[in-house]
Design a protein that fits this description.
single chain, alpha+beta, four-stranded antiparallel β-sheet, 4 strands, elongated
Length: about 100
């Protein structure tokens, strides 16, 4: 699985005085896999606790499932395009940049 192309979030922090530079690469497939695990746990919980949930609690539980699914779809959509900046902030000699690479 690691030999496939997966986009990376590059988090860059630069401070001019004193000079400090930090670049952290975060692979997007890690977040996708974590969301898949969360979906599996939520679906299993929905099946196990279906009888114990009150009628007013069931829509809230399915709402959480819908939100996690939507975030996963958004993350998979981010990785299909080309490189772009999510955040690019510079103020008082401090620069923070988050880029999908």
């Amino acid at each position: 699985m690691l030999n496939k192309y997966f986009p990376v979030l590059l988090v860059r922090i630069r401070i001019r005085k004193p000079f400090f530079r930090l670049t952290i690469p975060l692979a997007l497939f890690v977040f996708t896999e974590l969301l898949d695990c969360a979906l599996d746990i939520l679906e299993a919980g929905q099946v196990i606790f279906a009888r114990k949930l009150q009628e007013d609690e069931k829509p809230a539980f399915s709402g959480v499932l819908a939100v996690v699914t939507a975030v996963r779809v958004i993350l998979s959509g981010i990785g299909t395009g080309e490189k772009f900046d999510l955040v690019n902030v510079e103020a008082d000699g401090v620069s923070i940049q988050i880029r999908v690479w």
